[in-house]
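Subject: Sanity check before I submit

Could someone independently write out the structure tokens for this chain? I want to compare against mine line by line before I put it in a report. The sequence has 536 residues.
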Amino acid sequence: MTAHYTKLLRPALLLAICSAFCAGCSDYEFEYLYKDLPFEMARVSRPVIPAREVDIRDFGGIGDGVTLNSRAFAEAIDALCANGGGRLVVPAGVWLTGPVTLKDNIELHIKPDAVLLFSDDRELYPIEETVFEGLDTRRCLAPINAYGAKNIAITGGGTVDGNGDSWRQVKKSKMAPSQWKKLLAGGGFTNAKGDIWYPDSSSFRGSAVSDAFNVPQGLVTEEDWNSVKTYLRPVLVGLRECENVLLEDCLFQNSPCWNIHPLMCRNVIINNITVRNPWYSQNGDGLDVDSCENVLVINSSFDVGDDAICVKSGKDEDGRRRARPCRNLIVDNCIVFHGHGGFVVGSEMSGGVANVRVSDCRFLGTDVGLRFKSCRGRGGVVENIYISDIVMMDIPAEPLLFDLHYGGKSALEAAADGRSPYDVEYVPVDETTPQFKDIYISGIVCSGASRAMYFNGIPEKNIENIRVEDCVLVSGLGAELRYSSGILLRNVEVRQSEGPGYVLANCRSVRMTGCRDASGPSPDVYRHNSDNVVID
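---
Independent answer below. Compare away.
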């Protein structure tokens, strides 16, 4: 078959080349993001894709939603690679396919009226070695995947659909009665309690042998792994150890698991994308930036079933051994609708997280707004985080949460378990002790939350050097800080409807300057075993 190659130099390519050579110049398109950046970070440029173009139809592709196009995609990408790379155009239509593997210098350009729909045939998704939930494990190959590729892109404004409903288990508590009834009528089966639906027996077997973080245990042979294949549901876009990555303008939706997972990648631009998963989707994260360096996440929207914009760096011993921190990340002008958290760090942060700026975002109805989570056993340090100008509304839990006692539950599920005692047993510090420190937050406005903020630290390594300034938080309960030290609250107004405005438990060196609560200009502060507290 003869492919038609277009060798016209596109304007987008010219822009990419100019960006590459003028990354530090005033005409760099993302220079505004680096203004007053409080840490050093290299300018991130677009990947440079050769000016060569092919159409998937030239390789036998048929966009009727029925014909399987796996071979057409593989042949088109191989043909481009044989000539140094280029753009693969997916025109209007519904393009059913198995996994698509991106290689060096390839742009997957999905036109606005095109849908890339991934088949639910498990045989198309081989089980591979990977990292999931921060641990070295095995999962099914991601529908869109790349390993060690340089200069790759997904663009064009079209839709990528992971056909995730055919993979995911579903909790009854997350569905309306009519939805649950319809789900059961469609097949599959439930557990003994009748409160979790599984698409097939493979999914159920996987849940029976997995830990609390969805990683199967004790599987040895290939037969063992294949017996739980549906449970090993893939992320929609899995990019591992890639460099110079662009995701732009497209809609990514209905993933079997996490939507987009760049792992140990460098120089990543995520611009003007939309990410959607049903709100009931188990592990339906939006974006998980995992042990990556030099990343821009901008002008994008998320409406998902779990955390929306997440920063990770491995879990426990696996993460500490990998020792790949996630650092140099800018998040700007993003909007999050449903999600367990709007912007989230952890809980997989054993490799460390540093140098992050989040600005000008809106979180509308997320369970938590800014969510930092970890627990004893993780290790790792989260530091040098700068967050400003975030507007939130209708937050069922907290707009600002630091939790070093995370146990795998959402903030709402944890809150339903009841309040924990103020005093926590001391544990000696070692390499497994996690730490949150040097975090600067300003300009937060939240209209409606259960609790204004919650710092839930540990005695052996307090949450340390947190500065919260110029915030207005309307909530049911006030702000509660536990095992925290070196805290500055400046011009923070808490408009709580019950209880004291501020609770300090086992805190050291807390300064409250110009703070108010619903009781008036002088804040009502309850103290438990806290000292060196200054209120002025």
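---
OP: Matches mine. For the report I'm noting this point. Residues 127 and 419 are 42 Å apart (CA to CA).
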